[in-house]
């Protein structure tokens, strides 16, 4: 089977409040994006790794990336547009499956990615890494109106792994219909495709705020021990 990875990396990272996109912040001598790509290149299952970068990105070309499977394409306005652009770039050599993974999640383990791929391929159903919600969840604005039962709540992580054709048409249709899509699974759910929840490590955090960055520095140093 042919599997391509897609790495949306075209965000500006405004919530990080630094002068450049957060995927280019350094942790232990390497940018966050390099750490993330280093995890993906360890997967021999991948035929191609497509990175969606912004047209105004000046940093990507300065990275030293030796893996021949890596290809850069233009990102889009929202994360879903970036993923769709990468899917369309694969039109000429369509894979069977795609593994979409945020540039901002360098802490994913190779083990968790392989578990996701193996279980989805075995059952012939798409799925995502997710972790069970541990906190008590409140709904409200200035005051809590309700405590949401957490028994069936999961936090969606990436990678998210889906059949190429089904994901491409689900994203196209969902974008056309103005559906709010913050991950691939939301488009697949909307298009009524199955989305398996595969339990993954909760320290596979998305680096969004300065606090996340501090935590990621600690976690990466621990992974490198
Ligand atoms: O903004 P957020 O942290 O949710 O972004 C998740 C991932 O999507 C990041 O890796 C970011 O670079 C990427 N992204 C993108 N294109 C956009 C917006 C975000 O590829 N237009």
From TrEMBL:
Site (Positions MEP for the nucleophilic attack) location in chain: 150, 206
Record's catalysed reaction(s): 2-C-methyl-D-erythritol 4-phosphate + CTP + H(+) = 4-CDP-2-C-methyl-D-erythritol + diphosphate
Gene Ontology biological process: isopentenyl diphosphate biosynthetic process, methylerythritol 4-phosphate pathway
GO MF assignments: 2-C-methyl-D-erythritol 4-phosphate cytidylyltransferase activity
Entry's EC annotation: 2.7.7.60
Superkingdom: Bacteria
Family under the similarity heading: Belongs to the IspD/TarI cytidylyltransferase family. IspD subfamily.
Function: Catalyzes the formation of 4-diphosphocytidyl-2-C-methyl-D-erythritol from CTP and 2-C-methyl-D-erythritol 4-phosphate (MEP).
Protein name, as recorded: 2-C-methyl-D-erythritol 4-phosphate cytidylyltransferase
Gene that this sequence comes from: ispD
